[in-house]
Amino acid sequence: MGKSIIVKDVTFQYSEEIILKRLGFKIQEKTFISIIGPNGSGKSTLLKMIARNLEPCKGNIILGERDLREYTAKGLAQQMAVVHQGTEVAYNFTVEDIVLMGRHPHLHRFQREGSKDIAIVKEVMKLTNTWHLKERPINEISGGERQRVIIARALAQEPKVILLDEPTSALDIHHQIEILDLLRRLNQEKDVTIVAVLHDLNLAARYSKEVLLLYEGNMITMGSTEEVITVNHLKKAYNMEMIVDRNIHTGYLQVTPISVKK
Ligand SMILES: Nc1ncnc2c1ncn2[C@@H]1O[C@H](COP(=O)(O)OP(=O)(O)OP(=O)(O)O)[C@@H](O)[C@H]1O
Ligand SMILES: [Mg+2]
């Protein structure tokens, strides 16, 4: 399990302005990497390119051994699941049907879901604490519940890579930790590569093996959590004074904002 991702000299622009500037890095297979950076720095754009929702204007992206462009839609969905920022769902299926859609990349054309698919769906819904919602219409549940359902659908895909854009932004503290613990378990026990955009630097520090820091479309740095989450790097990106130390109880790195420079 696990797949590496190589981003090779990638440039992207929506219109005239260049949003991502000649980015190049490798995401190792089986890693847990967080992408951090201020609003508008290009995190979602980068994630969308890795998910092949957007195509680089220049450069290319390799997943495993092959260029992303070479995968069929179904082939890509067998390798990679994506949880985008904002979880609006256009159609009003039940929660269980939405999660069941995660199994489609593994079915033949016209093949109905079988007992194995149903069992996987039940398992991931239990893991994400969404099983009790299964009969509810997807657009009639809370934002945080919906976020967990979309994560359940991604897990049902049994991918080698999961891309998540702010997966915990709508979750209460209990569910934040529950979902991130779950992602960590998938990473450690099933070797799934996790790539998550996270705003909460303390959560990024606590859960990631590696961190990539973006600022105005450039990579300021990438490396182990300890290497990236430093006072100097954070100051460059966020223009703020911060304290970076370790929590005396947990030993995790912690970031405390002090003041915004004027
Ligand atoms: N569809 C679009 N068309 C034009 N410009 C866009 C589009 N989406 C994003 N942008 C611009 O591209 C830049 C990067 O946006 P992106 O959404 O990647 O940032 P982000 O780092 O994910 O920010 P946030 O933390 O707010 O989610 C921003 O300047 C944004 O205004
Ligand atoms: Mg974003």
TrEMBL record:
Superkingdom of the source species: Bacteria
Keyword ATP-binding applies = yes
Where is each ABC transporter domain found? 5-241
The record's Pfam families line, in alphabetical order, gives: ABC_tran
Q: Which GO terms describe its molecular function?
A: ATP binding; ATP hydrolysis activity
Q: Any idea which UniProt keywords this protein has?
A: ATP-binding, Nucleotide-binding, Translocase, Transport
Recorded hits in InterPro entries, A to Z, give: AAA+_ATPase, ABC_transporter-like_ATP-bd, ABC_transporter-like_CS, P-loop_NTPase
Tell me what this protein is called. Iron complex transport system ATP-binding protein
What species is given as this protein's source? Natronincola peptidivorans
